[in-house]
UniProtKB/TrEMBL annotation:
Keyword Mitochondrion assigned: no
Lineage: Eukaryota, Viridiplantae, Streptophyta, Embryophyta, Tracheophyta
Alphabetical keyword list: Repeat
Residue ranges of PPR repeats: 178-213, 280-314
Any GO molecular function: RNA binding
Pfam families, alphabetized: E_motif, PPR, PPR_2
UniProt GO BP: RNA modification
InterPro entries cross-referenced by the UniProt entry: E_motif, PPR_At4g14850-like_plant, PPR_rpt, TPR-like_helical_dom_sf
Protein name: Pentacotripeptide-repeat region of PRORP domain-containing protein
Keyword Acyltransferase: no
Segments passing through the bilayer: none
Length: 459
């Protein structure tokens, strides 16, 4: 199968890019057959690329009619399937790869593997395919140690699998890693919480002569500075962003808001928010979360209402941070209204963390009976975090009955947590029931629970 220059400029190729429906594709495919373009690799690759976006089944039917397809066409279709990010279709990519292995006239090359490694990282059940592919690469790609695309794909695969030491080891073998590979490793470490390693890598990136950090690089750096409470590092990243004229997009803006909020600099967080030309739900979530942590519930609710008025749809996290803001500021009615709007207005089914926020909202305000009723009516089983919140509210309001109820449930979920016993003991101590304090201590001994350092009352 050849690809003469005349086939590369044929008028049918211009029609392909304009085709939007399956019917158009079928018409163009018919012209390919009648004009002889179906015998040339390059036009066929264009047809396969477009048809796979309109109808993958039709693309496969075209491919299956090609006599002895080249590895280039195999690679084209594999890459297109993977680029759609549809995990249910990844098996087709691996099926095509196995066809290459079974072919007597074709063998995989360095362009076959990057897409397959990417697909292998989509889901944990596919990781085994990636490990097998690594062995295949060593067998079929002679220049694997010099092919930057294959090396970068391997780094990306192991990073997505959480095998960061392996990814780093492979990364260090690349003589001049490109920006995408640097960012892959930076993001993997940032997402895993290994913030100090992100700082080390970023310094190495700055020393590299071949790349310059971009917005993706800075998001990983700022996120790590936020986790470490490194306000100075965050200031440096913000200054570097301005110095090299990078865009303050939603991702960087959200990261900076989160950083400044966690470091207690709400003024700077608000300045970043105000300077952003485009704000999404995640950006609002970060700002609301920062206000909530600092007890500014009224402001948080204003941001929530402003977000909704802008036509942005709240997500699960929005409701968690907003109801929490109401809880910490005593805005019970507002919190209840926002909780009930989840299902009534946005058709979002509340999860256990949302019910936890609701219980905390009611419990902190002293409406413990309502909080208990809410727990009873939950469509899912309450977890330990929810019961612990209820126990803490019982302690705040000195409600022995509710405290004992919550501890009973907590013992069935995590009897080894000393903090639960301490909270109940504090309730007893608050009303001078020292015999019950001693009983709680004996209960801890019976369950072989050790008191955590720094927790008082039970001594």
């Amino acid at each position: 199968m050849t690809s003469p220059s005349t086939s590369n400029n044929h008028r049918c190729l211009n029609l392909i890019s304009k085709s939007k429906t399956l019917q158009n594709l079928k018409q163009i495919h018919g012209q390919f057959i009648t004009t002889g373009l179906s015998h040339h690799t390059f036009p066929l690759s264009k047809l396969l690329l477009l048809s796979s976006t309109v109808s993958l089944s039709y693309a496969l039917s075209i491919f299956n009619r090609i006599p002895n397809p080249s590895v280039f066409l195999y690679n084209t279709l594999i890459s297109s399937i993977v680029s759609h990010h549809n995990p249910t279709q990844t098996h087709l990519a691996f099926s095509l790869y196995h066809q290459i292995l079974s072919s007597r006239s074709q063998r995989p090359n360095e362009f076959t593997y990057p897409s397959l490694f990417k697909a292998s990282g989509f889901h944990s059940r596919l990781h085994r395919h990636g490990r097998a592919l690594h062995a295949h690469v060593l067998k079929f790609v002679e220049s694997v140690n010099h092919d930057r695309f294959v090396q970068a794909a391997l780094v990306g695969f192991y990073a997505n699998c959480g095998k960061l030491k392996v990814a780093t080891s492979l990364f260090e073998r690349i003589s001049e890693p490109d920006l995408a590979t640097w960012n892959t490793l930076l993001a993997a470490y940032a997402n895993s919480g290994e913030s100090e390693e992100v700082l080390r890598l970023f310094v190495g990136m700055l020393k590299s002569s071949s790349v310059r950090p971009n917005e993706v690089s800075l998001v990983a750096l700022i996120k790590s500075c936020a986790n470490l409470g490194e306000l100075k590092g965050g200031f440096w990243a913000h200054g570097y962003l301005l110095k090299i004229n990078l865009t303050l997009n939603e991702f960087i803006g959200t990261s900076l808001i989160d950083l400044y909020s966690k470091c207690g600099s709400l003024k700077f967080a608000r300045q970043v928010f105000d300077k952003m030309t485009k704000r999404d739900t995640l950006c609002y979530n970060a700002m609301i979360r920062g206000l909530a942590v600092h007890g500014l519930g009224q402001e948080a609710v204003k941001f929530y209402k402003n977000m909704v008025s802008q036509g942005l749809l709240p997500d699960d996290a929005t409701f968690v941070v907003t109801i929490s803001a109401c809880s910490h500021s005593g805005l019970v009615d507002e919190g209840l209204q926002i909780f009930h709007s989840m299902k009534a207005v946005y058709a979002i089914e509340p999860k256990v963390e949302h019910y936890g926020c609701l219980v905390d909202l009611l419990g902190r305000s002293g409406r413990l009976e309502e909080a208990e009723e809410c727990i009873k009516k939950m469509p899912m089983k309450p977890n330990a975090t929810l019961w612990r919140s209820f126990l803490a509210s019982a302690q705040i309001h000195g409600d022995l009955e509710m405290g004992e109820i919550s501890l009973e449930h907590l013992l069935g979920l995590e009897f080894e947590n000393s903090g639960n016993y301490v909270l109940l003991s504090n309730i007893y101590a608050g009303v001078n029931r020292w015999d019950d304090v001693e009983k709680t201590r004996e209960l801890m001994k019976n369950h072989l629970v050790n008191k955590s350092p720094g927790i008082s009352t039970i001594s």
